Amino acid sequence: MTGEKIAHHVSDGTDKRWRSGWARGCATLDELRSLLTLRDDLSDQGLPQDRRNELHKALQTWIAPAEDKLATLRTKTTVVEEFVAGLDSNSDRAAHR
């Protein structure tokens, strides 16, 4: 996706719908591609400062959903780790009966 398309998404609110879908874990490849393109565009050393500011602002809007997703994944990981530990314990008890 080009920077122009990203700018369009930034201005029309589409990016908000994308981020909310991404935070729920159902981001599409196009959404992820858009985010990666945004990051790539920001790495361009010749980017005019006003465009850099605009893209940086758009990138900042992804931070809260990313942090929310990370917290959700950490919680799920903890639940799975506890489940596996319980299975391990059950297996040990069953082996020594």
What does this structure look like?
- The chain is an all-alpha fold and 97 residues long.
- It has one domain (3-95).
- Helix content is 81%, strand content 0%.
- It has helices at residues 3-12, 14-23, 29-42, 49-60, 63-95.
- It is rod-shaped, with a radius of gyration of 20 Å.
- The chain starts with a helix and ends with a helix.
- Mean pLDDT is 79; it is low at 1-9.
Keywords summarizing the entry:
5 helices; rod-shaped; single chain; 97 residues; mainly alpha; 0% strand
Strand element count = 0
**In the residues, how many domains can be counted?**
1
Helical content stands at over 70%
Q: How big a fraction of the residues is strand?
A: under 5%
Radius of gyration: 20 Å
Termini separation (Å)? 61 Å
Apparent shape: rod-shaped
Reported for the largest beta sheet, the result is: none
N-to-C order of helices and strands? HHHHH
Our count of helices gives 5
Low-confidence stretches: 1-9
Mean pLDDT: 79
Instruction: State the secondary-structure class.
Output: mainly alpha
